[in-house]
Every structure is written in C-alpha cells, then in structure tokens.
Specification:
Length: 86
C-alpha cells in the first residue's frame, strides 16, 4: 500500500511533543528526517484514505502560524510518492 506524503516540517524542539502527538492522534505518521540546529525536520505522511487530511493540514498550519515553521506548500498536493511504496 502506498503512503501519501503530506509535508516536510521544521519544528522547534520545545514543540515536538505536542506537534507529533496531535498528528499521530489524527492518523498521520511522523518521521524525523534530520535535526538541524535546535529544530526537528519531520516528514509527515498518512496511509490510504482513512486519515483526515484536512485536519492534519490545519494542525500543521496552526503551528506554522504560531512558530513560523518552514515547510513547502507544494507537499500539500496529495500524491503517491513511489519511494514510500510498501
């Protein structure tokens, strides 16, 4: 089954717990790609059509607004990314 990539998000270290917990409670997967400086670069994805994509995007947007996170809006084009094929 394919996994759809949603976003690559840089999250300040002090926000990591809440950010990850909320996304996982919505059915998303969060994987730390790198940890530059004091930020965590999360790759956020979901599997299939069961995860509420709008709620996941809204959560990321709320963090982006409050913490000026760096993420690429283009990732919000929901598409199957071949490197995530299982």
């Amino acid at each position: 089954m394919a996994v759809n990539l949603i976003a690559s998000v840089y999250v300040p270290a002090e926000c990591v717990g809440g950010f990850k917990y909320r996304l996982e409670s919505l059915g998303a997967y969060c994987k730390v790609i790198s940890k530059p400086n004091s930020n965590y670069n999360f790759e956020v994805s979901f599997q299939g059509d069961e995860a509420p994509a709008d709620a996941i995007k809204e959560h990321i947007d709320s963090y982006e607004h409050h913490y000026e996170l760096d993420y690429d809006e283009d990732f919000f084009i929901f598409k199957t990314n071949e490197k995530y094929q299982k």
